[in-house]
## 1
Amino acid sequence: MRVVHYLNQFYAGIGAEEKAGIPLEARAGAVGPAKLLDQLLGEGARVVATLVCGDNYAVEHQQEVIASLVAKVREERADLFVAGPCFDAGRYGMAAGALCSAVHAELGIPVVTGMSEENPGADLYREALYIIDSGTSPAKMREVVGKMAALGKKLVNKAAVGLPAEEGYLRRGLLRDQLVEDTAGKRLVDMILAKVKGEPFESEMLPAQFPPVPMPPPVKDLSRAKVMLVTDGGLVPKGNPDKIEPRAATRWGCYSIEGRSDLRGEDYEISHGGYDPRFVQEDPDRLVPLDAARELEQSGVIGKLHHEFISTSGLSNPLSNTRRLGREIAEKVKKEGVDAVILTST
Amino acid sequence: MQLTLARHPIAELRFGASTYLDKTTLVIDREELGRLLLADGSLQEVRFEIVHPGESCRAGPVFDIVEPRAKEPGCSPDFPGVLGPPLTAGSGTTRVLAGAAVTVLSEKSTDESRGVTGRVLEMSGAPAEASPYSSLRHLVVVPRTRPGLAKHAIEKAYRLAGLRCAVHLARAALGQPPESTHPFEPVGPARKGREGIPRVAYVGQIFSRQRKPAVDEPVLYGLNTDGMLPVVLDPDEWLDGAILPSYHSSIGGAETYFYQNHPVILELYRRHHAGDLSFVGTVATVAGSDNFDRDRNCRAAANLVRWVLSAEAAVLTKYGGGVPHADLAETARLLEGYGIRTAVMVTDSSRDRRVESALLFNFPEVNAIVYNGGNGTRWTLPRAERIVTPSAEMAELLGGPIELGAANIIGVTNQQGASRLRGVVY
């Protein structure tokens, strides 16, 4: 197994902050912590090159450093790329994360790094990478590099990787399926017994944490505002021209309501698998309240109703996808000069 | 009310000239059984096949799986409200052909969200390891309904075929000595002598109003659940035929078999008998169709747990997808507000395998969560030597090799508590 190790100028023994501007350079064989890695990897594996870059240089010339580092790792025909451990050194952690991501994406080889949980690089890269939890103390170097070596070998050998507590990496926030001995029913009863008796128990899922959405400022003058109707209830024209999926939708559509003050069931269908659609099918205004909005427009409560409504289907959709849909819809609304949106859901 | 299960373990099913139980072998007269199922006129034809664990065999699409059970004469009826009057289930002795199953197929996949294959019974390989159904001996019922029947009439025909078949087979055990008998100690909020032992209730959703039930769709004592508010049930009612799954399989899957062998209720009973907890009863509820419906149902369920069952703790399971997930969490939140501790079981909602997409609630007090997996598991099923299915097109489709997700292999992601596939955070 051929291993390439990345270090910053400090751990490579070149110097401290005064040497943080040095560009990327390659040393044959193992230097500094790479020697320890070489030793802990044991037989059948060796560090063939140590790549070193100053912390400032790596951050300030990131694209250039990535390109030349990837080229060097390729040249070395590496089976594994290791960076750090970076402990709580922020610039070092950011560089290690970026370099590991690039090597993995471009060369497809396993990568391992190490950081403390507080390192800004950990925040940014913990989902994408295996980051061994190094803590903040370099005194733990041997222990940390040992975990990096063990995990790196597993990845190269395509062996099963255990859970964060077993392997020592920072929790990535991902899910995988595992066949376990006890049924869900037994686990449920075990959990309630522990909880009601005040004993420790481990929930199988972390609590959801949604960042608060700040309340937008009020519409200054509704009687002059351009208002748009947006729904995630899946109302689409007959034939579903944009092929909006009834669950986990990846698309949204924009449909004209020009010159109309009422939506008729025979012109529309509902692409949504999560609610009883009969009442909307009977009268789509129940979901997209065009009739009521026209009245508000005519009586001057709102300035103008935008001549299209936007629709998608909000069901079983991962947040990574709904964020994109939301962003795209918001861009469209902004582009149309809309001042206020009435958002209807089911 | 006291239920006793009389177990007759079944090691072999085979066809013969009459239906009888010979120790652990169940011999089935398929002509007699066919006549029984064809009698009501909804089915035009019915075939039977026997399927064994470990066999290179695939059957589908599965409509339902039922354990063969029959009541002793003089007890509550078999499947009350469906095969008999809606008298309270769960009294007297029920004969159980343990290790056997009646598996009813449908002519096509009944649920769009399952795709064209529907749910498949797989008897060997990795998927079989993950499904509790693969270790059973199945009599597979392959029905053909009369042309021109409405959808609800077709589904009712499948339902009745499965239940009638299961009762008919288990009647072979009447009058024979069971291998063992299992009486359930009566439970409830008024039991004395268990002071100081945590009082635990079970709250189970049995339907989700995301879909309108068919008028004659039997779910609770034959009722289709329309207009239903949460109701207190003795646990034995669940085990003894009062509740059936909806025609639409829920996202994780729910089958009659795991109402009869309810994993949560049986575990609560086991721990009750061991003196670890005091099982005070159950509430059957539904997931709402809108916010008012949700508030009504969740509050009524939580109030029954508090005032009728006087529980200190409750375990909750769901039926269906996202709306039920949210209703389950809201019920748990209300219970926690009453000082009643909760643990909940949810199905896998994360299609992108990110923890952030896993839950549809963020109530800090609802912090004891059992998480069933599924979205991360797909298998390529090899060509099977034997395909049991109603039509040539389905045979072609299911023949294999075919790639299917965990939720399409019946039993793997069951949300009644039988699943062993867990979502693990890493």
Note: The longest helix of chain A spans residues 90-107.
## 2
Amino acid sequence: MRWVCAMLVRLLVGGTSRGHVACDEDRPRVYYANHTSNLDAIVVWSALPIHCRSRCRFVAARDYWGRDPIRRWLSCRVFRAVLINRRRPCKGDYPLAPMLDCLEQGESIVIFPEGTRSADGDTGEFRPGLWHLAKRSEDVQFIPVWIENLSRVLPKGEFLPVPVLSAVTFGEPIHMQPNESREAFLHRTREALVTLRGNAA
Amino acid sequence: MMDPRMLTLLGVVTIALIAGSAIGELMRFTARSDRGRAFGDNLRSRMLSWWIMAAIFIISILIGGTTTVILFALSSFLAFREFITLSATRRGDHRALFWAFFVIIPLQYIFVARANHEMFTILIPVFAFLMIPARIAAAGDTGEFVGRMSRIQWGLMVCVYFVSHVPALLTLEIAGYDGSNAILLFFFILIVQMNDVMQYVVGSLIGRTPIAPTVSPNKTVEGMIGGVVSSAAIGAALAWATPFSVIPAACLAMAIAWMGFLGDIKMSAVKRDIGVKDYAATLPGHGGVLDRLDSLTFAAPLFFHVVRYFYVM
């Protein structure tokens, strides 16, 4: 079902994969991407080499993807998404825990560090989640993924897609430096992503 | 069983393809310079795409009728998608684009398939041209309004309206030519493509004088004349397959060649404006679907209407 959806989406929007995707060795990775459309995650996933796909999961917001039965079915059953709480969690409820579990089990994840879809295609500031994730899982690679044109396929608030051709560009892996501050890490990762935009054109 | 005229045309195409491939292979092995080898490699990938395109086109022609219409509908869809991908559209164009892709394109080809000449002639220039600006205006964003509206309309004209005149050739009722329209369509495509090839070949061999240096530096006066003259010759030689006698066939082929050249130049100008070399990388050696259709866009409506004016009762 997931594969069928991925095929349909690629047929609709192209989703050509560009750049080097390093996933020869089996280790968990965090693919972080700009977020412009509901199709983002599936397009990133289907742009990965085939043998990496089965060990890669999407991270989705529970308040959006868990709201009604259809979205719940799509996100949990079809795409095996990791649902997390976007809102301020209550005490003792650690929002990153499901993601860390995944990484510990050797699965990669796709996340959108801006936390929400941007309305105009610009890349917003990153939420600190990425840094917390990096701090707690040291040997994980962070791979920037620039998604091009998907905001034109299915912009926020639209229901019907327009089949504009899109492309996915993978960047070089990033590691957190020892003692790197939150601001520095978030700035560095964001710069790496925005640079891909320039190279993609 | 199969029409002998069709068989002969198929033979001509096969021989041309084999010749092209043979020249490519020969150049790859005998070329002394890197430039020559690169040319051979390029010709080889071009020829591979040619073989595949020719096979798809010929199979659709042989199955007949609706299959050909569907093939051109798909080509229009892919070409329009390439055009829109490279054009600057905005959030406010989204609904208009959805209509263009999923309503106007299918409708246009349904009218072609049903041989509804009136509707297929006015659907885009009248109805789509009324609807698209209205839909964009209704979305509320007025910035760049005329530019955005024109881009979508021009994209529809070139990729859908003009291209749909090719399968529409199947619906012309020409006296004494019943059931042979597929051959007419084949004739048209053959002239357009051979004109492209001859223009390129003659241009590379003896081309000196650029004809439109700012638009398309590789196009030369010599190449253009070479293309028109050889098209006329091919048209005259194939007159027996068409409803035309020799002189009109040569004249029509010349008109097709001239229009093919203009269509090509026009699409190059659009590409210059956008700032790209090819519309996409779908067909190795050729670029995108729209790069292959460029010379067809102007030739098809002209050929359709001239034939309709002079040969349809």
Note: Chain A touches chain B through twelve residues (CB under 8 Å).
## 3
Amino acid sequence: MLRDARIVAGKDLRLEARSRVAVNQVLPFVLAVVLLFGFALDADTALLRRATSGLFWVTVLFSAVIIVQRSFAIERHDGINDALRLSGLSAGGIFLGKAASLFCQLVIIELVLGLCVIVFYDVTPSGAGLLIVTTLAATLGIAAAGSLYGPLAAGLRNRDTLLPLLLLPVLAPVLLAASRAFETALGRGVGGGWQWAAMLGIFAVVYLTLGVAVWGPLLEET
Amino acid sequence: MVTVAVAAPRAATPGEIAQSHEWSVAFGLLMSPVVHLRAAVALLGRFPALAGVDLDVDAGEIVLLRGPNGAGKTTLLRLCAGLIPPARGHVEVLGVDLSVDRKAIRPLIGLMGHTTGLYDDLTVMENVQFWARAAGVDAADATAALDRVELAERVRSLTVERLSAGQRRRASLAAMLVRRPRLWLLDEPHAGLDAQARDLVDGLIGEAARVGATVIFASHELDRAEAVASRRVTIDGGTVVQDSSSPTGAPDRAP
Amino acid sequence: MTDTSVAPAAGAVTSTSSGGTRILGLICLVGLAIVGLYAFGVTGADVRLGESVRIMYVHVPTVTAAYCLMIANAGFSVFTLWKRSTFSDLAAHATAEVGTLMLGLTLIVGAIWGRMTWGAFWVWDARLTTTALLFLMYLGYLAVRGLPATPRTRATRSAIVGIAAACLIPVVHKSVEWWASLHQNETVLGKINPNISGNQYFTLMLAMVVFLLIGLWLSIHRFRVLWLTERLDEVGIDAAIDDRRSEYRPPVAQP
């Protein structure tokens, strides 16, 4: 299964490197959102600084929806879904591979987003350990959930708009926990940063396990 | 007797399967029959695309499926590939009962339909290598497969979206051949190809038996197809209405 | 297209009620009456909340009924994936629908109560927020159910979404609860004298049971409607098979 995951992840990342969708389209989108929030909150720097954690993770969620949409729309074209079923790859392996590639793409997006936020919202990063752990755990959970709901909702006419409805409520706890953890790291929150990070870890484990367990039927029947 | 890889209760790894393929070719083992259908019904939603098919295909045969559009040819091919569950009747492919386990035979099947099954943004070589690795086959075999479909060197490093339809078909074929399937299921393999490519396809189909594969292909190109095929089966109304291998030229079929 | 309109044969099913559900329905009505009596007549107003506390007798039971239905949905979803049973698939559908209804009711009633008591329609407390998220998740479930698909595909998809949502309930609940405690938001229930005793306690318990029964009654009826629809489609398949075979017109024999 891990071998299959490596093959699929490699293929996905090579695809992304070739087509550069994340780089050319999603990164500018991220920058745009950062600016839009600035406009929405009337460029109130103090307010923006306070709201940074939440805004950061909301932007990550929106970017995640776009990336997941793209990642699974590819697999729907040109009979690739059939080819995957016939390929001999294990469903769990494909799931982990897709999740891994989503993880990598999201981490890059988050790095750039972090830079934008530091620049535009005048934020001084602190608590690096907590920030990094939170980011990794949250991104893992987002990637896993995205890989679970992606095949259900992406790539077919009349289905694309279903993905946000499925994914965002499910990721609400991630948003909650990650924002609170970031707040604590930035010295602003009410505490318990590491507990929130632990909760993110639990979420990630639940969804990774679930994904590996149900991806077989998902691949076959959808 | 069935070869070990297919009959074993646990799923064989693709590597094992490729190995046993070599083995059986070397010893000229034949499994009979490769495809065995009795009163098979396959549903697309609620619609019975196949409404009771009886068919037996032995190893090494090259079977042509004819019939009007919408007769159920594509569905029959997909059923044999294990992509669709049999709703009724008995379906056995390569010795495996498909109502019990449809996944075991998949590494041994090569299906080529109207779609390419290739990633548009990857090059031909990358595509074939990916599908090879996925099947547990050495990625270096990709070169050999691409040679067989006579795809020029410079084309192999182009991304699929920049290829012509004919080149895409060849690339699809290569992706199928590199896995060395035992059963080839081809849905209108000549469609959209120029004369040279059609000759190539005919050649490959003809060769298939020599490498121990069985071929079932659907085609509307009757002249060309009938020259290559060892047997002609006509499908209409979701059933087999004519079979050149049966003595009367048509199976007993209740109206 | 086959003509699916059929006059009901003697003994055919004409409604989804049965002896059992009629009794159940009766119990529900009687129970509701008693609850109403107690809620408005027997129990007194709350010390802090005044008359509006009576809404609690609706608000809390809808939540508990919803949770039970969601758990039932999760159970049926697991069974559907595991055993591919149509019964459990339809039962999952029915419980999800009724459960979503209950959740919606909870939110509306909660909003009204909030307005009456604290002047705000929405309060970011743990229970309401969790309920809102759950409501959204099950709306997603129903949306997935509504996608056009073959019954088996739909069953698999919905089961996966249902299981994923159910797995999330404890995570959501814990995190929201924790979050609310950080802000020192008292839960809605916390604002009531927790030692509601005697009549108030009895009424609340009774109301919870009654609403659970109402949920059950609604689910059974909904399930039966779905079941009958499914049966109707099954019956259609045999006719469809015959139709399909008749598409083939044998060529007229030449003299």
Note: Chain C is about 75% helix and 0% strand.
## 4
Amino acid sequence: MDYTYFPGCSVKGLNKSYEISALSASKVLGVNLLELNDWNCCGATAYMSIYELRAHILAARNLALAEKYNRDIATICPACYVVLDKTNRYICENKELRENVNAALGEINLKYYGSLKVRHLLDIIVNDVGEEAVKSKVTAPLKGLKVAPYYGCQTVRPFGAFDDKENPQTMEQLLRWIGAEPVKFPLKAKCCGGMQRVTNEEAALKLIERLLKAASRSGADCIATACPLCQMNLEASQDRVNSIFGTHYSMPTLYFTQLLGLAFGRPIESEVALGQELVAVDKIIEPYKVSVIKRER
Amino acid sequence: MVDRVLKSNTMWLCTSCYLCTVRCPAGIKITDFMYELKRLAIEYGLGEHQGAAILAKTFVELVNKYGRIPEMKLMATYGMKTSKTKPGKLLSQAMLGLKLFRRGRLPLGVETIKGVEDLHKIDRWLVSKKMEPNLVERSKGGEK
């Protein structure tokens, strides 16, 4: 299964562990992620706040570059996913926008015909790869590991292309396939504060604290996320939250792809990309690490 | 009235979580509406003091320069720009940077894409066609 892979800036920067573990898990599952050559920033939420047409053109340059391969675009960052998907849909729905975007792209000899689908890796693994194939690759089932499945906002909103917009189930399904136990986590698709952690920390920390509280109360050993910004906000803010709210959170926050790698028995550092956490994960991964070593012997 | 709306911080607190958009019984794309308010506030020069506006502008400048976002540079530049009004911000960002550095998570260097000149070409075209109000305003050498 071939896909044109759009990584996004964040997973090439502060959140490399997401990309490393995503590429590794995909390879195990026969999902071929072929990186788009010379891709540019999708624009995220910031670009659209200043320029509208220019933001669509920025996203559309990537779509136009990808179109010659005629494969679905695979993203792992939900912000990239939504921005590319939104421009893709708006271009198809709105003739005037399509003409303006293509007139601009024409200046650099590109044109977008609107033939692509933008996907998230979670969707690809659950719906294209499927239960049987995922289960067949599990060598170290994550038995007894309680996970709070955290989708964040943009994995499912606004379009809800592959799951419910407010009560998604895909990640729970996947977690069960690899032997883990998803806990009931009602805030699973609520906001972590996004970039407000930088521009309005007070507002963001309230949201982050709410999520950490819900995850702790649910009895989860860790949170699984599908978003680099959520990962950073939930993990890196725990010190700040603890000092402001007088709490004692120490909640490991991993990418869902890292849990896949663990269950597939991949090398802990080079492929599961564990070892750069700000909240220690040793305790929760220890039982599964052992079974990995046993298997290798 | 326009002043009251465009000077407010409502739209700058919007994180694009799209919950309002999916819940609106009338199908109004409220998140898109918030984006429009942000752009209008910038166009009228009424959003300058908002942290989220400063961050968004910094983001745009870096994308235009490199074609991608060097995250640490974004944080550092934002910290410098707001250091007078929010002096604690720079320090807390630096502390987080240090923690990430210790864990080996800080990326080194800044990559520039080959297509960055193409992006500039598109900008020049947009200005010549007057198709992007904020961009045209900026190219005149100042905000309204």
Note: Chain B is about 60% helix and 0% strand.
